[in-house]
Structures are given as C-alpha cells and as structure tokens.
C-alpha cells in the first residue's frame, strides 16, 4: 500500500472510538421485538443488543445459515431473553406471516433493518429486474412486516416501529436510482404511519445511517471511496460500526423514545449536517 494508505490503515487500527456499548439491563425485559436482517450487520447488532437487554427477539433473515451463527453466539442471555430465528424473505407474504406468528400474541416493537443495495444504475441504465428487486425488498418488505404487526399493536394500544432508511433516503445519492428511491419511500412510509397511528399509541421512526462497516455488498466500492476519513464525523472514524447504529436504533425501539414519532434520525456522525 502507498504510505498514505498504510498510515490510514494503522490509524484506523489504533483509533477505536473509545465508545463502549452502554447496555441497559432489562430495557427490553418482557417485550417481544421482531428484527429483520438479523443475520448480518446492523440487524444482527440490534438483535444481539435487544436480547442482551432482556428482550425476546424474533430474528428474521433470508440467510438461514447466518441466523444459526447468531443464535449460537448469543448464549448466557438474561432471564426471559430469547432469540427465535426465522428464516424467510421479507418480500414474501407467507414468510412474513411466519415471522409474526413466531412472535406470539403480541409484538411490542419491530425493527425493519433488512435491505439490499443496487448496482448503482442511473435511471437510463436500470433494468426492470433490478428496480423490482430493490423496491420489493427495501420498500415492500418494510410495508409487509409493518402491516402484519400493526393489528397486535392496535390491540395493545402501544407499539414502536423503527425503519432503516439511509443517507440516500434524505438526498440524492450515487448509490443508484432504485436504492435511493426505495429509501426515500421508506421515509414517506415512516411519516405516514406516524401520523395515522399516533392516536393509537404506535410510534414509527426511522434511522438514516451514513456509511457503516457491514457485510452489505457495495458495488464499485472504490467509487464510494472505501474507508475515508470524514473530519466532520464526531468520532472522525471513516465508517460507523453496526453496534453504533444499534445504539441509535435500540433507543428508538425502547420506550425512552416516548416523544419521537415520525422522526428521521440521521445516525451518520454528522455527515448529513454538512
Ligand atoms: P447486511 O448485508 O450486512 O445485512 C442485511 C441483512 O438483510 C442480511 O443478513 C441479508 O441476508 C438480509 N436480507 C436481505 N434481503 C432480505 C430479504 N429479502 N428478506 C430477509 N432478509 C433479507 O447490510 P447492513 O449494512 O447491515 O444493512 C442493513 C440496513 O441498513 C439496510 O436496509 C441498508 O440499506 C441500510 N444501510 C446500510 C448502510 C451501510 O453503509 N452499511 C448505509 C445506509 C443504510
């Protein structure tokens, strides 16, 4: 590597944020939380944190193998905590019904984290196949899970839903037209839910991550500028960690976010403030 790259790699190795997870014991005790995309990256970190804070987690993901790995790592959980893996596709209605069935009578909170990237196509390049695939997972999957959990929340007169949008849901992005449109739509879905269910005690908020080091395949990573220093980030690290995103998301999933509804929280170290 060129000297600059080597120095940057060293700096990153030596430069943890200094932040450590502030586990709140019992924050989710007695609650059932569905987390999609729970086998990898941000969803995995959310599932892990909710379980370690006492919750019963329905861990939903299309990757059965990686879900097994998650359950195997989460041993020694507090009393009442549990991880129930459910393999399935969030864009498939029958699979979504199985996920919600696994939750039992009541769903206290839902984290719609699962999502896919696109191949960075601009609109004159986008194929029907790519457009439909990205919209089906990122938008329709979020709609299907939400539609399936709302009845139990209406009965309980309480519930929290957290959607994962993106920096690309807040402004134009080179991430691709399908991805950018899907994440803007997730923002719209979030605000619509917030308004429509406010009087029923159901709060819906979204987190818009900036760059996060996860397993999400990013086509043409070099074009995005793989790990770069962003001086405006508070922690001046290049990419956030999945655990840092989970800290934002679990706050919104918890009852402590009581006064937030329809909020789109940029969890990006300040990127979108510039
Ligand atoms: P990831 O690839 O590590 O995790 C995504 C998970 O979703 C995977 O386990 C995958 O198997 C699962 N999944 C994909 N399609 C599915 C489907 N149809 N049904 C069920 N599960 C499915 O990615 P990540 O970075 O943790 O991404 C999580 C969310 O964060 C996504 O919505 C993504 O768009 C968003 N996001 C990520 C970044 C980033 O830089 N990583 C930035 C902004 C937004």
Automatic annotation (TrEMBL):
<keyword id="KW-0560">Oxidoreductase</keyword>
<comment type="similarity">
    <text>Belongs to the short-chain dehydrogenases/reductases (SDR) family.</text>
</comment>
<protein>
    <submittedName>
        <fullName>NAD(P)-dependent dehydrogenase (Short-subunit alcohol dehydrogenase family)</fullName>
    </submittedName>
</protein>
């Amino acid at each position: 590597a060129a000297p600059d790259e080597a120095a940057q790699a060293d700096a990153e190795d030596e430069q943890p944020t200094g932040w450590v997870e502030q586990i709140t014991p019992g924050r989710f005790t007695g609650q059932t939380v569905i987390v999609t995309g729970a086998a990898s990256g941000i969803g995995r970190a959310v599932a892990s944190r909710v379980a370690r804070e006492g919750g019963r987690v329905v861990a939903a993901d299309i990757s059965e193998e990686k879900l097994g790995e998650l359950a195997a790592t989460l041993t020694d959980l507090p009393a009442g905590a549990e991880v129930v893996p459910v393999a399935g596709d969030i864009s498939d209605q029958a699979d979504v019904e199985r996920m919600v069935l696994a939750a039992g009578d009541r769903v206290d909170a839902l984290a719609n984290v699962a999502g896919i990237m696109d191949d960075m196509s601009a609109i004159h390049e986008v194929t029907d196949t790519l457009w439909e695939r990205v919209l089906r997972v990122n938008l329709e999957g979020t709609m299907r899970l939400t539609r399936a959990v709302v009845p139990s929340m209406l009965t309980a007169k309480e519930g929290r839903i957290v959607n994962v949008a993106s920096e690309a849901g807040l402004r134009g992005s080179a991430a691709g037209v399908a991805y950018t449109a899907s994440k803007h739509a997730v923002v719209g879905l979030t605000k619509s839910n917030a308004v429509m269910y406010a009087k029923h005690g159901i709060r819906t908020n979204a987190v818009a991550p900036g760059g996060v080091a996860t397993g999400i395949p990013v086509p043409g990573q070099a074009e995005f500028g793989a790990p770069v220093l962003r001086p405006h980030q508070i922690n001046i690290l290049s990419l956030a960690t999945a655990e840092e995103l989970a800290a934002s998301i679990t706050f919104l999933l918890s009852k402590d976010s009581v006064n937030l509804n329809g909020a789109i929280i940029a969890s990006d170290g300040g990127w979108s403030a510039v």
